[in-house]
Amino acid sequence: MFAPGWSVFGEYNYIDFGTRNVNFPSTGMVPGLGAVGARADTNAIRLTAQEAIIGVNYKFNWASPVVAKD
Fold it and tell me: Which of 9, 26, 30, 44 could link 34 by a cystine bridge, Cβ 3.0 to 4.6 Å?
């Protein structure tokens, strides 16, 4: 807390979704890549993400008693 009711936070997340091999079939239109439907290429795709979050919080004083004013 840096003032009454106010605070600051920080967060860092690293997310790794792993690796997946994706096969690309040949269309038969490019010579040397094989017949239509034959596997022309395989790519390994890896997905990762990183994020940093910084925020400010304000805490409302909901726990205090409610006082009616005249």
Answer: 26
1-31 pLDDT, tens digit each = 788 889 999 999 999 999 999 888 877 676 6
Say if CB 34 and CB 69 are below 8 A apart. Answer: no
Q: Residues 18, 24, 27, CA angle at the centre, nearest 5°?
A: 170
Mention every residue, 6+ apart, whose C-beta is less than 8 A from residue 35: 26, 28
Q: Which of 20, 9, 24, 18 is nearest to 57 (CA)?
A: 9
Residue 55 CA to residue 63 CA, distance in Å, equals 23
C-alpha distances (whole Å) from 57 to each of 3, 12, 21, 51, 54 are: 11, 17, 43, 19, 10
